[in-house]
Amino acid sequence: MTSAALIAVLAATALARPLPVPARAIVIAFGGSLGPDQTPLDMERALMPLTVGPALIADEVLFGDGDPHHPLVQVEPVAGRAPTLRELLGSIVGDPADLAADYRPPLLRRLTGANRHDLLLARVVTRAKSAAPGQPLLVVGVGHGGPPRSEADKPLLQLWGSDTLSVDELAAALDEQAPATSVALVLGHCFSGDFARISHRAADPAQPLAPRCALLATTASRTAAGCDPRTDSPQNFVELAARALASGDRAADLDRDGQLTLADLHGYLRMRDHTVDIPTLSSETLLHEAISLESDYPEQKQRVSAVGAKAPAVERTVIAALVQQLKLKPDTTLAGLDRRLADVLAQIVDLTDSQQNATNRQQAARDEVVSAIAERWPQLLNPFRRDFESVLKRAEPELANELTTSALARRLQKTDDEVATLNDQLATLELQEALLTRLSSALENSIRWQRLRASDPAAMQALQTVLACEQAPLVSVRGNR
Question: Selecting from 3.20.20, 3.40.50, 1.10.150, 3.30.479, what CATH number does the domain 3-294+456-476 have?
Fold first, then answer.
């Protein structure tokens, strides 16, 4: 889409009226989905703050199958406890969901339904239509996101069971009902950046803008924290956002106006979320569509401090915090920042190759242990056999030796340690890459905003439809005077 075409689309929505300040947003929280790599406890924990408040409490909580008595939340092992023989067997055989895991019912309060496609859309539309004038609807979701299977497909947010949700479906539901209130999303799944298109009617960049916006854990082309099997990184993005909103956290009120907004949270999470996520706002996506930077744009020669000094107040705070976390030298230029980012990416590529080779050795060692178990106790490879428990009990002394002290077990432990070390090194590099990318994006976006204001004030004015949504107060800061 050309810049001229985008400006024409923006101009079609330039007459958006500012929204009055509400008492608080209406909130729908949803999460819980089935999948082989799922960590359901993280999903429950992410939404928990919005079920207890005290500053902001969800009006609707759609989680799992909606049954408060169904044991669907995976329970983590007690910290520091040695694994049971059953758990150790499960970790080696590769079927921990059946052999090592335990489940309990959700502890979320205010559970009002299942995390299903039709119910979620119906509740979003109903709540949006029932909002008081100027009262925004906030939709907070945590789950897994699937990558597009082809260029024609779009990333999907996985709900409960086999249900999925696309940004196109959500936009279509809101367009049909045409609610007057603004609708703000906070989503933490992989490839969630695709939901930035919610700001357009029909989620189509060629269509006019609507009073809708999104704060997303990452871009449309990146996975999110919590979805990498190499690490134990939790889905921290939604939990941090939920905690700030639910408590009315003054630290998240970056513009110090006594209200928390999506724009405040965007800045807060870029500083506080210590994972690989790249928090992204809808307006950033629109900005990239409107203003592109040439490969050798002149500001690259400027120091980071000089470019940051020209940024808006909130962005200056974010840039300063990221500079401190990265321990940048005072004379670092934007070009120098890009070189450091490129160097870290190259290190990640090299270390990923080493990690993959180590993983292959680990799998070969694991296969040898599994083969030894299969030769002596084939019943233990299938936890659903009726004689599984009795065989496990009879084999306990010898099996414990096979899994812990045998030559094969020691070889497997050696490869486990090697892979764990490489994973830790990769996690450190990937966090550096995330911080560098956040800082680079903040600086480049500040330049883009300056260019847009200077080159086309009308287009800048048109963007107020989305900016007003991002700056709509969601909850008051507690204790503010």
Answer: 3.40.50
